[in-house]
Please model this.
Amino acid sequence: MNDLTPTREQRTAALEGMGCKRKRVEDIRFTQGKGNYVDDVKLPGMLHGDFVRSPHPHARVKKIDDTEALKVPGVLAVITAETLKTVNLAWMPTLAGDVQMVLADGKVLFQNQEVAFVVATDRYAADDGINKVVVEYEPLPPLVDPFKSMDANAPVLREDLAGKTTGAHGPRKHHNHIFEWTVGDKDLTDAAFRKAEVSIKEMISYHRTHPSPLETCQCVCSFDKIKGELTIYGTFQAPHVIRTVVSLIAKLPEQKIHVIAPDIGGGFGNKVGAYPGYICAAVASIVTGKPVKWVEDRIENLTATSFARDYHMTTEIAATKDGKVTGLRVHVLADHGAFDACADPSKWPAGFFNIVTGSYDFPTAHLAVDGVYTNKAPGGVAYRCSFRVTEAAYCIERAMDILAQKLNMDPAELRLKNFIKPEQFPYHSALGWEYDSGDYHTAMRKMMETTGYAALRKEQAEKRAAFARGETREIMGLGVSFFTEIVGAGPSKNCDILGIAMFDSCEIRMHPTGAGIARMGTKSQGQGHETTWAQIIATEIGIPADNIMVEEGNTDTAPYGLGTYGSRSTPVAGAAIAMAARKIKAKAQMIAAYKLEVHEDDLEFDIDGFRVKGLPEKFMSMKDICWAAYNSVPPGMEPGLEAVSYYDPPNMTYPFGAYLCVMDIDVDTGVYKVRRFYALDDCGTRINPMIIEGQVHGGLTEAFAIAMGQEIRYDDTGNVVTGSFMDFFMPTAVETPHWETDFTVTPSPHHPIGAKGVGESPNVGGVPAFSNAVNDAFSFLGSKHIQMPHDYWRNWKAAKALGAIA
Amino acid sequence: MIPGSFSYHRPASVADAVKLLSDLGEDARPLAGGHSLVPMMKLRLASPAHLVDLHGITGLKGISRNGNNLVIGAMTTQHDLLASEDVAKSVPILHEAALLIADPQVRYRGTIGGNVANGDPGNDMPALMMTLGASYRLEGASGARDVAAADFYQGAYFTALEPGEILTSVSVPVPAAGHGYAYEKLKRKVGDYATAAAAVVLTMSGGKVATCAIGLTNVHETPLLAADAATAVVGTSLDPATLKKAAAAAEAIMAPAADARGPVEYRKHVGGIMVTRALQRAAANAK
Model:
């Protein structure tokens, strides 16, 4: 050993492995405008397609006349449902077991529904053609309010389902009913309510909103008639699933479909499902023999592809006088729009909403969800959350605050009293989940100590007194939120998409010079996989992260995976990476033993290579082992150093966190100011703290948007009135509050590296924190529950209703 | 979001621009910063066959003095306005309001002429120009004329501009030294139009309001001068009762539309609050 020999710390740091704040390698191209997005794909002879859309929310389509459109210079074809019927593609299956019109077949069911697809030599000609297609409509009464969807005289929306009394998830009660999903013990729960000393009941709505990624949905389809092969470049969060779905519905052999998801500018659940644009572009390419591009604009994105939420949750909690919860009963009315196109695992019509017992030890619970059709766009995607988990977290976190108010208890104290205790893990919830791990009390207390919670409550009491004396027009709210997520879908025993188990995969190939490539079944949309996946490998096998290239998104080269959404990448694919890396390491150990002339049991792994136990100078680096793998492997061993792992997780992971929002509201204008926001996240093992912090900042910003104003709103006649960023609240850096982040670490006991996933926690936990802050601010004026979104005028309206405005 | 086809013209003088507009007739639209017209074209709510781009006319840009008036060329951008020391010093309310218009990217491109000429009730500058007693120079085939800002606005997107006329400059009388001013704008986010906004320019004398003008943005189909509200405060020290009276007088002439910014009642209510706050701040910064 001399001064030039790197220390153990230096060797570890050189790897930039797990725990390192490694800078994002993908940002080198993104920050220089060198990303390669779908709209950057330009193929020779490429055509452009765009949609004629319905101005009506509900109407019969009497006639589509394309005569004038076809005379527009550059317009080559107008595709309608009649065209699609010749290839049996007028309708497509949804991930939720329903079917959806690709193009209006006889009627339209929501405003901006796709009616015809105009194909032209450029985008301008396509839009000129759209303006010349004449569609004759016969307007029908629109159904907008989900609470009226199952009225006896409600209009029939889905004529294609006439006479079908059973849907994909059981019996249908009404012509606009999709499914009823129930979980839990009804009798036991009803009994708990009968015996309850105290109970609360509130209809808590989580309004319709939209993931609205910066890059909208888009694709380029290119059909090679000679080879019979279809290549699809698209903004796909799950490229392999798209390949299989296309194969099944277009009856093309799966090996002849090449799906490529290049760089993606945000997904947030918007890019999981299949949209009419994909089908139409593919059919147009097959018809014309040329590549066809379809790029959604912002209005189309907001109004036609995949909304999120729209859950109306009647929530009841039974409790003792001193605040111990004894039962939970929830009924959800779920507005699915015109088609049930939720992107949930197939057997879960309401996703994992049965995580609604939250972080609390409910002895019994019962949940029923009714899904209904309305004349609105389809969707119901998991907008930066696991499937329906943010709805569930909002539901229980609002309800706990309402209970605290009724009991005159501090909401933080009520939560501490009812948390699942550390010794109860693994914990079996009343609605059927096995929580893998958690330490809720520690996280909550850390939040309370760090923020000075008690002092803030004292300040609030003083401000309320000052308000009562007429000295201020400002009120102060403290929004406490403690969430438990369920992510990492999922174990094959309960999760599949169209019959494909929700495993994920990794293939690692090491090159002779000590570098390598990892190919994945996941697909980053900004999460930073190229950075973090390499960090896992670096720590597992002792090769610097910089020497590992991560590749995703090409279904020809990547192993089959179920994609990236629902915070599943780290829990599932992250585990596959570790498992594949461990296979590499096992073979490397055999090679090292051979080269060092010892038994492999005499070796120990030491940061970046193998060392003979007790003989520190006998060491072989992983870099040298890689070289040896290509020239001097032990007799009988195959050369090379590569491995593949398909990981079927034994359980979900359960990240959790404690958030606090401090808000001041001017009652006269309803203008709010987020004075402080503290977010403590426990996502288990932390792979890259800087990326975690970025994820939390982004998720909190989306949560802030949703809670404080972001909505997809329809007027009474079914017109969508939030079709652009003028009215759909997309906060800029100016509106976005400052975020304080913190953490505890409770590793997942069943995950190979103990990681749980974090990308969606801040959206799940953030929304109730903001909403609870607003509700808490108004509570002393006698308010029980104010629905989201809490934009200025609604805050003013609440103040007025409570008599705070003369 | 793809506009229809159009021809593009770039005249080098006002005379050429006026001639083009006159020759091309109703199918032609002058183009300044494009922040109102181009989005309308992308939505195909406007489909002019000809765009007459005014950026090639050098004489339309710049800020100069004409006696006690500040003359702002129509193609002067909001950014130019913000960069002008003269504006900041002599008509500071323009500086303050320009900072509340959208974001820097928009302000680099958006022009004063376009802002005041379009007749969009959501634009900030029209109410300010009315408050300041500004006038607009309009040039057309039959020559030039000056119209007071207060007489210019007739309805949403309807103005005193005749077909073929171009608004070439804005002339702003410099307010008295030591005047107080404030532009209070409530908006949901950066880039949004006002839910309601109020401009106040006043002078104080012996602790009482000597003169006052109040303008209102986006609470009616045109920008408004709240004359009764202004009269109500003159001679007072802006005591609570007066402020209440002024706000009520201002609210009485408001007729906003219900939109995503809020229902009519809310927009009027906060309009009154903007008036109150603008009066208080203007009085506080008057010398």
Remarks:
- Chain A has three domains: 8-35+504-647, 38-140+216-264+271-304, 390-485+653-801.
- The CA atoms of residues 181 and 749 of chain A lie 31 Å apart.
